[in-house]
Amino acid sequence: MTAVRSSIPPALSDPVRILLVEDNKVFREALELLLGLRSDVEVVAAVGDGPEAVSAAVDLHPDVVVLDFRLPGMDGVQVTSAVKAACPDTAVLCLTATASGAETEALMAAGAVACLRKDQELDEIVAAIHSASAGRLARAE
Predict the structure, then answer these.
(1) Is the distance from CB of 91 to CB of 115 less than 8 angstroms?
(2) What is the domain partition of the chain in residue ranges?
(3) Closest CA to 55 of 84, 14, 81, 83
């Protein structure tokens, strides 16, 4: 009998805990539903604005915050800065349709690990979430 190997590395066998931040309710619910079908990630909360995102990050300490750049109350740079100040071990990954080069640079300067387009394949987004989490784990050690 041949053993079947998992495609998920042992260090990532527990699901990556995600806080999803998106103001477009339809997109947020669709992404939450799609991510919920996977065993390698867990959406611990999904919120629709910047202040909610910071509060949820402080309360839940997710592994990765996946956030839109344009949010009510605070933009992605402000949310990233606040999350990194309150939860330095939490990785922040931006998922946006509209961030400019300067906005992406500002996100990275604030502590985001990457900025992806919303039209990327789900597997690419999940791979980036795992990379962000692995980087978070490496920094925390």
Answers:
(1) no
(2) 14-140
(3) 83
**R_g (Cα) of the chain, nearest Å:** 15
Closest CA to 77 of 52, 105, 45: 105
Scanning 37-94, the segments in alpha helix (DSSP H) are 50-60, 76-86
Residue type, 107: L
Has residue 84 got a pLDDT over 60? yes
Q: Does domain 14-140 have CATH number 3.90.480.20?
A: no
**Residue 95: beta bridge partners?**
116
Q: What is the largest CA-CA distance in the chain?
A: 57
Whole-prediction pTM:
0.85
For residue range 37-71, list pLDDT tens digits in order.
999 999 999 999 999 999 999 999 999 999 999 99
